[in-house]
Amino acid sequence: MSAVTSPLVWEHVQPAAARRLLTGAIDAFAERGFQATTTRDIASRAGMSPAALYVHYPSKERLLFEISLYGHRAALEVLRDAGDPAPDDIPGDAAPESSSSASVTADRSPAERLRAMVSAFTAWHAEHHTIARVVQYELAALTPEHLAEVAAIRRAISAQLEQVLADGVDDGSFAVEDLPGTTLAVLSLSIDVARWYTPHRAKPEDLGTLYGDLALRMVQA
Amino acid sequence: MSAVTSPLVWEHVQPAAARRLLTGAIDAFAERGFQATTTRDIASRAGMSPAALYVHYPSKERLLFEISLYGHRAALEVLRDAGDPAPDDIPGDAAPESSSSASVTADRSPAERLRAMVSAFTAWHAEHHTIARVVQYELAALTPEHLAEVAAIRRAISAQLEQVLADGVDDGSFAVEDLPGTTLAVLSLSIDVARWYTPHRAKPEDLGTLYGDLALRMVQA
Predict the structure, then answer these.
(1) Nearest to A28 by CA among A20, A19, A36
(2) DSSP code for A15
(3) How many Cβ atoms from other residues are within 10 Å of residue B17's Cβ?
(4) Among 1.20.1290.10, 1.10.10.10, 3.40.640.10, 1.10.10.60, what is the CATH number of A10-58?
(5) What superfamily would CATH give domain B7-58?
(6) Percentage of the residues of chain B whose pLDDT score is greater than 90
(7) Where are the domains of chain B?
(8) Which intervals hold domain HTH tetR-type (chains A, B) (predicted)?
(9) DSSP 8-state secondary structure symbol assigned to residue A109
(10) Where are the alpha helices (DSSP H) in A83-178?
């Protein structure tokens, strides 16, 4: 799963100098917090002068915004891919007259989708715990406009999970009294992994398996 | 439940000037992070000079340590009180010859205790979300000696929860495959409330009720 492998998250950031500044900023923000980090700190981690930083990013907040945007988008993508109702349903592959029923039988149950989503989302937060901490704990440092953009992705993340819970309630496999509250709790369980995770405690994928099971137990009828 | 009411957490801090510095430090650390906060910031929030601060606390780290110590102790106390196996068992009240069997029948089931513990622990993290954020996110700023003291309380918190899960496994009411992993997950669910909680989202006690139910579902046989 390429989105779970650290270096690839930033490979689209070009040129390399901009990428070095971004990863330097993640380390600095994670170590000292956004407020205590100077643009000089970030530039020197990237082997650059503060003036060179401004060629790529107009401000320290802009760096935080890009980190937050990429981090949230990557987490949303992981959740969306894992929760795909019919991941192997390739259009055009099935004969036209049977494609509709074929796609129905290929659909995975809400339980399968929920387990896969929480497993992947949890493993992502373990693997990327440094980025996830910056992204989750420094929201208050974003400008209102940037926060609004990030908030839209956060709502999309919630909507993905709430939909699979609603699907399970609809088909009777889940019993959920408070849908938004339970959605938030399940996401929160995965996100908090970033706070305490260190590689010596567990492998990201093992943690994902445990949390997928626990989430399923939280909602099963 | 007095420990859940904000001002009372610090009432034992004397004199009032020391208490004002402590609450000023909580607000400053929560707003800007430990690293970006100066002793001057903290002193001015308490209406004092930086020199007056040093009369009460030798360093900014000492303030963080006291906040961390009190915050962790309060959370442990809430968990311990809520999980008491026989809260109404008052020694000397029962006739001596029947006291042993009376205390057995008064014992609450692991399910009741777990639900009460998670409810109270969650409500505490909602009510005290500002303190909890400082306590949870600034551990790395403590000296090794202070961190060791706090870590001992953290282990006691885990032990309280792990014990009730183990009791439930023993009497067959719980099915838990990974006891330490599930203990961490249940605690994590409550602690992460501090990250996203704002009073407009839910009342602390309602959130506690929901989370008590969810935790029980995570472990029930």
Answers:
(1) A36
(2) S
(3) 16
(4) 1.10.10.60
(5) Homeodomain-like (1.10.10.60)
(6) 80
(7) 7-58, 69-84+96-221
(8) 15-75
(9) P
(10) 99-106, 110-127, 129-137, 144-170
Lowest mean pLDDT among A45-49, A98-102, B8-12, B34-38: A98-102
Chain B interface residues facing chain A, Cβ-Cβ under 8 Å? 31-36, 136-137, 140, 177-178, 181-182, 184-185, 188-189, 191-193, 195-196, 202, 207, 210-211, 213-214, 217-220
Contacts of B157 in chain A (CB under 8 A): none
Q: Looking at this predicted complex, what is its ipTM?
A: 0.86
Which residues 6+ apart lie within 8 Å of B193 measured at CB? A188, B122, B125, B126, B129, B207, B211
β-pair partners for B220? B174
Equal CATH topology for A10-58 and A60-86+99-221: no
Across the range B121-141, mean pLDDT stands at 95
Q: Which residues of A lie inside 8 Å of B (Cβ-Cβ)?
A: 31-36, 136-137, 140, 177-178, 181-182, 184-185, 188-189, 191-193, 195-196, 202, 207, 210-211, 213-214, 217-220
B166 pLDDT above the threshold of 60 = yes
Mean pLDDT of B91-119: 70
Query: What six digits make up the tokens of A219?
Result: 């909602």
Q: pLDDT exceeding 70 applies to what percent of chain A?
A: 87
| B99 pLDDT above the threshold of 50 | no
Report the CATH superfamily, name and number, of domain B69-84+96-221.
Tetracycline Repressor, domain 2 (1.10.357.10)
Nearest chain A alpha carbon to B140:
A31
pLDDT of residue B96: 47
Inter-chain residue contact B184 with A196, CB threshold 8 Å: yes
Residue-wise pLDDT tens digits, A155-214 = 999 999 999 999 999 999 999 999 999 999 999 999 999 999 999 989 999 999 999 999
Q: Annotate B148-174 with three-state secondary structure.
A: HHHHHHHHHHHHHHHHHHHHHHHCCCE
